[in-house]
Amino acid sequence: MTAAIQFDQLRLPPECEKLREEVRAFIAEETDAGHIKPTGATGGDSFSREFSRKVGAKGWLGMTWPKQYGGQERTFLERYVVTEELRVANAPTRLHFVADRQSGPILLKYAPEHVKMKVLPAICRGECCFAIGMSEPNSGSDLFAARTKATKTDGGWLINGTKIWTSNAHQADYMIGLFRTSQPTKENRRHGLTQFLVDMKTKGITCNPVYQITGHHDFNEVVFENAFVPDDHVLGEIDGAWKQATSELAYERSGPERFLETYYVLEELVRVLGPDPDVRGAEGLGRLVAQLHTLRRMSVSVAGMLHAGKEPVLEAAIVKDVGTIWEQRLPHRARELAAFSEPEATNQVPFEKKLAYATTIAPKLTIQGGTTEVLRGIIARGLGLR
Amino acid sequence: MSETSAIVAETAARIFEDLADPQTVNQAKDEAWQGPLWASLEESGLTLAWVPDTLGGAGASLADGFEVVKVAGRFAATVPLAETLIAGWLLSEAGLNSPAGPMTVAPSRWSDQLKIDAAGTLSGKARNVPFGKSAGHVAVLADGPSGPVVALVKLADIRAGEGSNLAGDSSVELSFDKVKAVAHASAPAGLDRHRLMLLGATVRANQMAGALETVLSITTRYSGERIAFEKPISKFQAVQHNLARLAGETAAAVAAAGSAADTFANGITDDRFFLEAAGAKIRVSEAATEGASIGHQVHGAIGFTKEHILHRFTLRLWSWRDDFGNESDWAVRLGRMVASKGADELWPLVASR
């Protein structure tokens, strides 16, 4: 009987713990200065040029990348620590998060040298915001249905079509977009899509806001009308995007942001319940802490396996599936457990404020970056079922 | 896993494959197969892995022992291997020799309390003692006149009740009516009920993680074999999603149990071990509830029969939830610990692991 699922028992090495202290000291300074607001619910979702620049100055953006591009050549485990500490502190990381996590690594792999030299150092300085141009009105989970076209012209490509649900697009400097360069073939319906780096200041690009149920403007509809993208902004193989960006997905799926997005509710729940909760409150809290601890151990273990050069594709997909469902249910569970708390609890107001915000963002957690349904298909494939 | 741990795990797996194959055991008319299995485990030094050779054991590392426990869980073995390991560890901690043969350990429920006087006479009751009928000795942690005392008692000297867990393994009440211990000694500093329960919880969690791995593997296999509506049921998306959930629960169990074992094996006994062991027993028990249900759902009627091996794993998964603290019990304790430390200490505790 062989085990299909493997979790190496990795503990973060001492250099990570030293770094963790540095990050906590930085967060404490920023909190004292009022740049991180522990009482504000929307912190992690906020956009702050000043804050991102400071994180960049610390050397904590693109930290695993080669030094010639502004990176620090540090380990993925060190990046893990920075990510989780900033997330738990509810720090305003929106400007740099996507660029640091996924756009940068794609450029590193597929962009021509002079483009890398231009863009990557800007990401490392915390000055560069990225959007991901994948979804379209008729293409969400089914990426290969994308219809926004890139047509060859002199020295580059003309983009026509519409991307939608594009987070950050109205504030982004660049987008990495997936556009149709050929029709799919009979043998391979994934054929014909190409990745491009798009400068968002390009003529012919319009961003229209799409307001979310939170009341915030994060989503956009991005309309391309003969927007020109030069040849040297093609990322990787023309028509062959489906072959790219598979191994990176394990990082993207298993990071701490896949279960910590509503963490602030749990912390506030501990305050509401007080130092001596009744049996019901204590049991509920204990289960949530056990579940959180387990998720973090799974996530750290996947980070460790990736660091060791393994390919824990199945384990990474599981972390995202189990993790996002947990963080999605957390506000609802916290609400139940706080139902009998004393209304005069000192933090009742911040608790309710944060709970309200977490409740409204919760639905997106199991949709963004691969829905639960898609993930379960990937897990089923990992089990050999399809 | 270290190289020696891998060898130990392989040795254990080979013994179970040869002498406790679930299919063969499930068809056996009686329990006669248990004798040769135990003899082989004992001969290989696996039963007293956590006892140093100076005290009659095999002197293996804690990590090696946990690997054995997990393998035993994968086979849902009905011999008191895990209990003997814990008993041997408990006796060794107090400097007592371990006898040959199967042992069990008491108390394994929070509500039970045993007392011992200065002369080594025990009184009190311990309920739901696993293998309390079939083992030879019981290692006990009792309240003495000046702190916790470890004692070794012959089961023949104790009045044992009747009873079994859901899977039919003996689980009985032991009445210590002024029973004289074979040997006893003061527990070392730090070894109290809490720590024994944490270790017991970690051991059970690892058995359960092993059993869940098997539930996942036999359920996945069965879904590829069973044809319905002219195709293997594994091709139906609804079944695939159930199996993906089972994989998620199994993954959580394997990660949490392994992490708790690794923590104890590295000599960590403070609040970090509390989080790890209690967290593992809570999360693994939740996974057992969810995972066993999915295993049965995918198997349909055949999995509900004596004839099929699935029940050997699911019934034990359900019963093991209750040994050494159930998930509700541990959750209350863990929740109180977190609450008393306060909100600002929660993340540092979680991040410390």
Q: What's the topology here?
A:
The complex is a heterodimer of chains A (386) and B (353).
Chain A: H1 14-32, H2 49-57, H3 76-88, H4 94-110, H5 113-124, E1 130-133, E2 149-153, E3 156-164, E4 174-180, E5 193-199, E6 205-211, E7 217-230, E8 234-235, H6 249-254, H7 263-273, H8 279-307, H9 313-337, H10 348-365, H11 372-382
Parallel strand pairs in A: 1-4
Antiparallel strand pairs in A: 2-3, 3-7, 4-5, 5-8, 6-7
Helix pairs in contact in A: 1-3, 4-5, 7-8, 7-9, 7-10, 8-9, 9-10, 9-11
Chain B: H1 3-19, H2 22-27, H3 34-43, H4 62-74, H5 81-93, E1 103-106, E2 114-116, E3 121-130, E4 137-144, E5 147-154, E6 159-160, E7 171-180, E8 183-186, H6 193-225, E9 227-228, E10 231-232, H7 237-265, H8 271-299, H9 310-320, H10 327-341, H11 343-351
Parallel strand pairs in B: 1-4
Antiparallel strand pairs in B: 2-3, 3-7, 4-5, 5-8, 6-7, 9-10
Helix pairs in contact in B: 1-3, 1-4, 4-6, 5-6, 6-7, 6-8, 6-9, 7-8, 8-9, 8-10
Description:
The complex is a heterodimer of chains A (386) and B (353). In chain A, 44% of the residues lie in helices and 14% in strands. Chain A has eleven helices and eight strands. Chain A has 386 residues and is an alpha+beta fold. The radius of gyration of chain A is 21 Å and the shape is globular. Chain A folds into three domains: 115 residues, Acyl-CoA dehydrogenase/oxidase, N-terminal domain (Butyryl-Coa Dehydrogenase, subunit A, domain 1, Orthogonal Bundle), CATH 1.10.540; 110 residues, Butyryl-CoA Dehydrogenase, subunit A, domain 2, CATH 2.40.110.10; 134 residues, Butyryl-CoA Dehydrogenase, subunit A, domain 3 (Up-down Bundle), CATH 1.20.140.10. In chain A, strands 1-4-5-8 form a four-stranded mixed beta sheet, covered by helices on one side. A four-stranded antiparallel beta sheet of chain A has the order 2-3-7-6, with no helix packed on it. With 353 residues, chain B is of the alpha+beta class. Chain B has three domains: 77 residues, no CATH class; 89 residues, Butyryl-CoA Dehydrogenase, subunit A, domain 2, CATH 2.40.110; 159 residues, Butyryl-CoA Dehydrogenase, subunit A, domain 3 (Up-down Bundle), CATH 1.20.140.10. Chain B has eleven helices and ten strands. In chain B, strands 1-4-5-8 form a four-stranded mixed beta sheet, covered by helices on one side. Chain B has a four-stranded antiparallel beta sheet with strand order 2-3-7-6, with no helix packed on it. In chain B, strand 9 and strand 10 form a beta hairpin. In chain B, helix 4 crosses helix 6, helix 6 packs antiparallel against helix 7 and helix 8 runs antiparallel to helix 9. The longest helix of chain B has 33 residues. Chain B is globular and about 70 Å long. Chain B starts with a helix and ends with a helix. The interface between A and B is large, with 59 and 57 residues.
